[in-house]
Amino acid sequence: MKFILALAKRPYALLLGLLMLSILFAVSIFNSASLETDLTEYMPKTHPAFVASDDSEQLFGIGDAILIVLEDKRGIYNAATIEKIEAITNGLQQDFDAFENVISLTTANNIQSADGFLEVEPFFTGSTSEKALSTLEADVEANPMIYGRNVSKDGTATLIIAELTKDADTKTLQKDLLTWIGQWEGPQTLRIAGRPIIEGSLAELGPKDMAIMFPLVILTMILLLYFLLRSIRDTVLNMVIVLFGTLLAFGTMTLFHIPIYAVDTMIPVMLIAIGVAYGIHMHNTIHHLSTDFPNIGKDELAREAVRQMIRPIFMTALTTAIGFVALMSSQVLPVRYFGLFAAIGVLGEMVLSLLLFPASIHLLGIPKYKQKQQNLTKPSAMTRLNGVIMQRPKFIVVLSVIILVVGIWGTSKVWIDTSFLANFEKDSPIVETDQYVNAKFGGTSTLNIILSSEREDIFKDPTVLQTMDRMQAELESDSIVGNTLSLATFIKQMNQVMEEDTENGYSIPDSQELISQYLLLYEFSGDPQTLEQVIDYTYSKANITVQLKSDSSAVLKGVLATVESYQAAFTALDITIGYAGTGYKTFVFSELLLEGQIISLIISFGIIFVLLALLFRNVRVGIVGTVPIAITAVVNFAVMGILNIPLSSATALITSIAIGIGVDYAIHFLEHYTNTRLAGKNLEEATMETLVYTGRAIIFNAIAVMGGFAILLFSVFPPNRQVGALIILNMATSAIGTLTVLVVLVHYLDRSNHLFPKRINQISQRSIT
User: Fold this and answer.
1) Distance between CA 483 and CA 446 in Å, rounded?
2) Cβ distance 442 to 673 under 8 Å?
3) pTM, rounded to two decimals
4) Tell me: the pLDDT tens digits for 202-251?
5) Among 292, 436, 666, 765, which residue's Cβ finds the most Cβ atoms within 10 Å?
6) Average pLDDT across the chain, whole number
C-alpha cells in the first residue's frame, strides 16, 4: 500500500511511464501481430494422437486440399467445358507454388484391361471430339472410384482438387485464388471449398471483426460509464485503465511471439468490460468518502480510498485472473493462451486502477460529485430488496433449488462441436458452397483410418480386405458419409475390369495369389504412386479415406463408433486401428476441449473457495461465497443445453470467465458486510447499508460488464454472439444471486454464530423475524 501511495504522489512520472509502456506494446502489436487459423496449430504437438496422425500423414501423403467446383448445368461433357477444366488444372500448377498436386477429370487415371493386362491410362485422351467425350462419359460412369466422387452423378459438376504443400499460407492463397479464379467464370459457375479456404476466410474476417467491435465497445463503455458515474473525470480514468489492459495483453503476447487465435479477438471486449469494475468500485468509495467527510484532505482521501479498496480489488482481480488462468489446464492452445494473456491484462488493470485514482486526486484535486449521499431511510430499490430478503428467505432458497434442478436437467443436454463452418452465417457463400459440394460429391471433410500390423503383406490377405470392405460398406450406409477409398476399393475395381465387368466382378477375390497378381500388374502399369496413398510398400499399413458431408466433431463421433465396432475383428487378424488427418484431429480437439472445461471448472471453484476461506478466515464463508457462481455455472450450461448451443472453443471460455468475474460481487458484498458488522452494526443495519452502498456498485459493475459484452452481439462470428449473450446472462445471474441467495446464506451463518465470534453477534439488538 505504501508503494502504491508513493507512486500516486508522483502523477507525472506515473503518466510518463504509462505512456512509454503503451508505445512499446503498440509498436510490438503493429510489427508482430498475426492471426493463426490453421487447425494443426491449435493443438499440442506432443499429444500421442497428433504424433501418430502426423506420422501417418507423412507416410501416406495425407494433407489438406482446396476444392474447386466447376458446374455446367448443360452437362460437363462438352468441348468448351472440358477444355476449361484442363486450362484451370494447368493454370493452378503453373501460377501457384502452394499446390503440390492438382487432380481433375483431365488428369485422373482410369483402370482398364486389355488382352489380360491391367492398363492405367488417363480418362481424358486430349481429344474433345464428340466420340471422345462420349467415351469419357461412359468410362467415368463405369468407374465408382471417380463417379460420384470427383464427378457428380448428374454429370453437371466436377471437382478440381488442388493439394497443398505443408508450408502453404492459406490466408494469402485464399485471397489470390479468389481473384485468380474469377477469370474463368462464365458460362460455367465456379466455387471454392475446403478447410484451407475456411481458414483463410477466418484469417481475413478476424481482424475486420475486431476493427468493428473495438471502437464500438469503447464508445459504448464511455457512454455507459458517464451515465452510471456522472463524472467525465472518472470515465476517462476508467477508459485509460481498460485500454492499457488491452495493450498489455496483446503487447505481451506479441513480445513473446505468440500468434493471435480467432478466439483472442474477444479479449479487448472482455478486458474493457471487466476492467471498468475496478474503477467503478474506486469511484464509489471516493464518492462516499468525499461526501461523508466534506473536509477531508487530498492525502487522506487518497490514502483512505486505497486502504478500503486495496484488499477487495486485489482479491477480485486475483479471482478473475484465476478464472482465466484455470483455462491454461486445457491442452487446446488457443484456450490456454487466451487464459494466460487475459489474466495478464486483468492484473494490469487492477494495478492501474489502484494507482490512477489516487494519482488523479493528487494531480487534479478532490473530485466534485453531483450525487447526494444515500439516505438509508428513504425507500429505494435496495431497501425494497432488503425487505424481500428479510421477509421471504425461504422463498429465495426454494426458488434457487428449483433453478438448480432445472439447470442440471438442461446441463445434461449440452453437446460438443468444433465445426469450423459454425464460425460463419448459414447463408454465407462459404457455407453454401460447402453444402453444395456435400450434396454433389463425397464431402468436404475427411477421416483417415490407419490399419497397422507387424506382418508384411497382410493387406494382400482376402480376409483382411473383405473385412475392410464390409466396414467401408457399413460406413457408406451412414448418410453423413459420402464415400470411402482404400486398397480394397482398388482391388475391387481391378477385379471388375479383369473379370470384364461381370455381375459379381466388383468384389474382393478369395485368392491371395490373384490379389498379388493384380497389384503386380498395377505396378507395371506405370502408376504405382497412386497406391502409395492407400498402402505402404511392405503392405503392413493401410489408409482408408472416409469422405464426410460435415466437419462437425459431434457427427464424427458416430462414424468413429462404427469403426470401433470392427476393433475385435481386426484384432483377431493382428491389426490395430488408428486415425489420422484433420477430421480426426478435430474430434480429438473437441475431446480435449471438454476435458479442459471440466478441469478448469474444478480448479476455478477449488482455488476461489480456498481464497475466500483465507480472506475471511472462515471455511463456511468460502462455501457460501461460491454458491452464486455455482448457480451461474449451472444456469449457463442449462441455457446452452436447452437452446442447443454447443460447447465450442469459444463457448468453452464462458464459465471460467463468469466464475472469475461473478465472484467479484460476492467478495465486495462480504467485505463491506463484514466491516460493517465489526464496526458495531447489527445484522439488519449491516445488510441495509451493504445493499445500499456496495449493492449499488455491484449493480453498476454488472451493467457495465453486460454492456461491454453486449458488443459481441454485433460480431460477424455466430459463436462470439453466443458468448456475448451467455455472459450477459451470467453476469445478471451472478449479481442477482449475490444480492439475494448470498445474503440469505450470510444471514443464516450470522444468526447461527458461524460468521463472527459470539461477542460480535451480541451487539445486535434486533433479530430477523
Assistant:
1) 10
2) no
3) 0.77
4) 777 877 887 888 888 888 888 888 888 888 998 999 899 989 999 999 99
5) 666
6) 85
